[in-house]
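Quarterly update from the structural biology core.
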Amino acid sequence: MQKIITSHFVQGMIKATSDMWLKGWDERNGGNVSLRLTPEEVQPYQGDFYSTPRYIEVTEPVKELANQYFIVTGSGKFFRNVALDPEDTLGLVKIDEEGQGYHIVWGLVNGGVPTSEFAAHFQSHITRLKVTEGKNRVIMHCHATNLIALSYVLPLDSATITRQLWEMSTECLVVFPDGIGVFPWMVPGTDGIGLETARQMERHGLVLWPFHGIFGSGPTLDDAFGLIDTAEKSAEILVKVLSMGGKKQTISTENLIALAKRFNVSPMREALK
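Predicted structure, tokenized:
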């Protein structure tokens, strides 16, 4: 049996969390990441599994994820420490057969538990599993500085925020043609915000939590990171443009339509008005 610490998924989580920390998106214990794994990916490392794994019940049943494996960041864990002690800061869990809870089969060695946003992750995983036919396997949450800043000055409207971000960088419409979802502020770590995030993820791979942060999804850790990184770069440009007195010229609707045609993407219609 191979050592789980060398697995692509543990090493991938180390890289992703380190990159997010270096970007300044995950101060202290801010942010969380989960990656859905296949049994085939996990099987070579079962020799490292606990003989008696801890069991945690979920607050909302997740039957759609029964028997699925996830590697996830721990509650209260600092991203800057994941590379130093992945067994303390990460956990590998398996959902039970009824979707009523999960077993921690590896990691979180000091009695830790998965992120307090795990309920939101589960609901978003269920949604993205359906709408992408299983391709999306990552849910990533962080406190991207400029996206948070914009939630204080732009209308909390998906079409408006999407259009503003599309106009700040030509690649944005190509990278996230489905736009960015948004809803009014809600208490984090609750089933309610998890269900609302999942509802938004029926249409959008990115969801903005006003005054808090961003949720992104993708097939891989790199894809989810790149999606957030692209949106945050656009937000940074918009913050600078607004600070310089606003736009004097911009990418037009006709330009955006031509861009979508060239790269064969279907942009969010409401953001093209």
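The CA atoms of residues 29 and 78 lie 4 Å apart.
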